[in-house]
Design goal:
Layout lengths: L10 H6 L2 H12 L22 H35 L15 H29 L5 H31 L6 H12 L8 H30 L5 H18 L1 H12 L9 H11 L9 H41 L1
Helix pairs in contact: 2-11, 3-4, 3-11, 4-5, 5-7, 7-8, 7-9, 8-11
Amino acid sequence: MAMNARSSPTKSSVISYGLTDELVLRSELWNGRDEPRVAFASVNAEEDKPFNFLHVLFDCAIAGGTAGVFVEAALYPIDTIKTRLQAAHGGGKINLKGLYSGLVGNLAGAFPASAIFLGIYEPVKQKLLETFPENLSAFAHLTAGAVGGAASSLVRVPTEVIKQRIQTGQFTSAPDAVRLIVRREGLKGLFAGYGSFLLRDLPFDAIQFCIYEQLLLGYKLAARRNLSNTENAIVGAFAGAITGAVTAPLDVIKTRLMVQGSANQYKGICDCVSTIAREEGISTLFKGMGPRVLWIGIGGSIFFGVLEKTKVVLAQRHFNSQDSSSFKLD
């Protein structure tokens, strides 16, 4: 990078907090390779503070949860259309009414799920970047994405099951969905399709965040500066769209297994794939790809744009708090 990431900004430049300083902050927040020993919310690079796992986890959880809620609230109708397309058998038509069905319940699960993911991803990524040589940074991003996805799946899977059952018209509200699923299928019903969810989301999370991180690094090197909020959003959209297209068949399988309920039409992932291919054709595995790519592309733009901005706000808050404490001591 043209800007030497290992040279610290002066205290006065951070306090002024102009556009240049915001870009410096964003680089320190996100680029674990540049400042691996500084907790992401610490903006005063002159103080060589040790890595604080809990501090990073907490701030990333807030940033991730906020970004996740923004995406779900903004793009829920597209997600509903995608789900209904994937769940429809044969040439069945989809219902375009009630596109916001289940939104409130989904937001209640989206915040903790996204918070857990980012809260795990960022500190794991920073630790791996400290451990691996620089030419293996992509492996660190892939691994951290998969670890974060696995941790958040305990919240994401029940949220997804309830959301998709409501989207396909099986239930009218999240409380009813939880109560009836548990009554008919037991607690395991809330984790229907768990294996297929991991099969889709672990590679999805790993690939999306790896593409995003690597594109950021390449963009910074080419542009010889840090990125603006708009540029972060564009990179996020590109990473999301590519990953959404690559993992589309896995998403169809996951949806079919999650919405089948007690009917148990499919006995597992392999049976689901073979049944779809035999009865509906291989092309069915790509149903809903258009809405999915659109949804995740726009979602990636919103998610990473909000994520980076929230990180900067949190960093500024921490710095102001630290600066106020130092002033009192002086």
